[in-house]
Write a structure and sequence with these properties.
Protein name: DUF2194 domain-containing protein
Organism: Paenibacillus germinis
Number of strands: 33
Distance between the termini: 96 Å
Shape: globular
InterPro entries: Class_I_gatase-like, DUF2194
Helix content: 25-40%
């Protein structure tokens, strides 16, 4: 072989080897990870208080009545109190006798949570309304003597079957989808009624009025012909419906949105997936890198997301000690994806050593999951320590703060194990809504009642393709207090059941359409990682908001509250709120009468309510 040919061959082979090497580096990220590369930059939030001054106007007064013997009414009461607390509103519980002493006022509302009104004097309520008082009933009740006050023309008692679905006739809060009768998210026992012509209907179900407002004397009544106020789904509607009874109402919004990638980074399945092979002709790892992650990175940049990835070590079912170390056997694609996520300003949290939920055989879990229980807390602690070792090795300098339980199943033993093994974790994110299945951890937002070192930050929704029920969940929490916490899984696109047999092209288009709609309708929701979202929520919850109302002015003052702060503001249909440019920005919410979003850039803001010109 000639010398020139040898040199040419050497050059070609060298170039090919270099290309393969670069591709390998690109795929598995072999460059060493430094602690500086992974140090998390926490979001900073400004907190201010209003200057002391005398404020004119009336404060909102909400008085909640529930018959002590009405068990369902008391459940509605607890649900409503939680919803009001999230919106930074407060209702005072009163007795039937105390109700007689309430003076009518345009910013005073009596809230009835149950169907047992036997203690109430109809004539007292009638006088209260005629003189300008406001009344809101969250549960339907049959009381023909109340028909005139409620705006009912004829009342044929209860419909003998359950009514399903919900239809928006007049917008209470924008964004809610209609739910057909085939959707069981709302299932109600309802009155068979015909309303008077002047009554304004906001919601209905199967043609039956569900939520309406009736003006009576100088006052007004808002009535829920429903038994669904006992459930979490609908809290946003419950809060916003209070504004229908009032001349004006201000509710607070934390203004947060977060997006979690569960089971990520994790070992990538190496088997050929028929959906991926058919659509892209790629292996599963190649699809994850070239298609799925490329789209997720694009979504992050286009819509501002700060992802929280929940890392998992393996998918084996070993739960007994000794547990093998993960240090030498992790797939190299895990640090690759983890570093990419951190490079986008994201956060890595913990999902588990494997996908076996942290419960013992004595704790409840749905047996259909097929999981292997852990023998004791010590085994759980060992598994979590294995993940801490792996995290420190792959992402030095990055502190684990967030934990998501596998399949959203967790009990006391698991919580105690987390507290012992990973003291840096102070956030647990499970489910906001659960079904009837056994063992799923349902949470409220805020400090855990059993383990106060943890803050609960439950997920609201999940998936790339959001059906109408899921969109309803999302919208309702926004209406309640302005928060989105959504989950996706990398392998949703691989699973025929979870993807509905649709390919990634379809799922990604649906997902992007939802994100675009969210940005368009609720641009004020700040994209944050879970740890930063919890930080903002904690500041929001600890702060104080006071609102004073009059016919022409609304004044909002705060103590130790976020700046900017966000609110929904409802004003009379014939009024327009105005604010100075330095104090904030008002944006009319689409498809609504009198509902605005306020971004307050000062701790004290004053809204002037101007009469609209005819």
């Amino acid at each position: 072989m000639s010398r020139k040919l040898i040199i040419l061959t050497f050059v070609i082979v060298s170039v090919l080897l270099l290309g393969v090497g670069l591709q390998t580096i690109r795929t598995v990220d072999l460059f060493p990870l430094s602690s500086a590369r992974n140090v998390y930059q926490e979001a900073q939030f400004s907190v201010k208080s209003s200057a002391q001054s005398s404020i004119r106007g009336d404060k909102l007064s909400l008085y909640m009545y529930t018959n002590p013997k009405d068990s369902e009414g008391n459940k509605v009461k607890v649900n409503l109190q939680t919803a009001l607390g999230l919106a930074k509103l407060h209702a005072e519980s009163i007795t039937a006798d105390e109700l007689r002493t309430i003076k009518p006022n345009p910013w005073t509302v009596i809230l009835l949570t149950g169907e047992d009104i036997s203690e109430l004097d109809q004539t007292v309520i009638q006088s209260y309304l005629k003189e300008g008082g406001r009344l809101l009933a969250f549960t339907r009740f049959y009381a023909p003597e109340w028909n005139d006050m409620l705006g009912i023309e004829s009342n044929n008692e209860f419909i003998e079957r359950t009514i399903h679905g919900i239809e928006v006739n007049q917008t209470v809060f924008p964004g809610y989808p209609n739910l057909p009768a085939s959707n069981a998210l709302f299932s109600n026992s309802m009155l068979d009624i015909k309303l008077k012509p002047q009554v304004k209907v906001y919601l209905s179900a199967e043609g039956v009025p569900m939520l309406w407002k009736n003006n009576y004397g100088q006052g007004s009544v808002v009535f829920w012909n429903s038994t669904s106020s006992i459930q979490k789904v609908g809290r946003g509607l419950m809060v916003q419906s209070i504004g229908l009874a009032l001349d004006s109402l201000v509710t607070s919004q934390v203004a947060v949105r977060s997006l979690n990638i569960d089971d990520f980074p994790s070992p990538v399945p190496l088997v050929v997936n028929p959906l991926i092979r058919q659509e892209y002709g790629l292996s599963t790892p190649a699809f994850y890198e070239r298609i799925w992650w490329a789209d997720m990175a694009r979504f992050a940049k286009l819509y501002g997301w700060k992802y929280t990835g929940l890392m998992i070590g393996n998918y084996q079912n070993q739960t007994s000690s000794p547990l093998p170390t993960l240090m030498e056997n992790y797939p190299k694609i895990m640090p690759y994806f983890g570093s990419k996520l951190l490079g986008l300003g994201g956060e890595i949290g913990l999902h588990g050593y494997n996908h076996q939920s942290l419960v013992t055989a004595r704790e409840p879990i749905d047996t259909n999951l097929g999981y292997v229980p852990w023998p004791d807390k010590a085994s759980m602690v060992e598994s979590l320590q294995r993940m801490v070792e792996l995290s420190n090795d792959l992402f030095p300098g990055h502190e684990l703060k967030t934990y998501v339980p596998p399949s959203n199943v967790l009990n006391k033993t698991g919580k105690a194990a987390i507290a012992e093994a990973v003291p840096s974790i102070d956030i647990i994110s499970s489910l906001y809504y659960t079904g009837e299945e056994e063992g799923f951890l349902e949470q409220e937002f805020g400090v855990d009642s059993e383990f106060p070192q943890f803050t609960n930050f439950p997920r609201i929704s999940s998936g790339y393709w959001l059906d109408d029920s899921t969109k309803f969940y999302v919208n309702d929490v926004i209406a309640n207090f302005g928060l989105v916490n959504h989950f996706v899984h990398p392998d949703d696109a691989l699973d025929i059941q979870r993807s509905g047999g649709k390919g990634w092209k379809y799922l990604s288009e649906q997902f992007e359409a939802w994100m675009a709609s969210l940005n368009k309708n609720y641009a004020y929701l700040q994209p944050l990682t879970v740890r930063d979202a919890v930080k903002k929520l904690s500041i929001y919850s600890a702060g104080k908001v006071d609102v004073h109302y009059s016919k022409d002015v609304i004044t909002i003052t705060t103590k130790d509250e976020l700046v900017p702060m966000h609110y929904t503001v409802r004003v009379p249909d014939n009024r327009t709120p105005e604010i100075s440019k330095v104090a904030g920005v008002l944006t009319r919410m689409e498809h609504t009468d009198g509902l605005w979003h306020l971004e307050a850039r000062q701790p004290t803001v004053t809204l002037q309510l101007k009469e609209m010109k005819p």
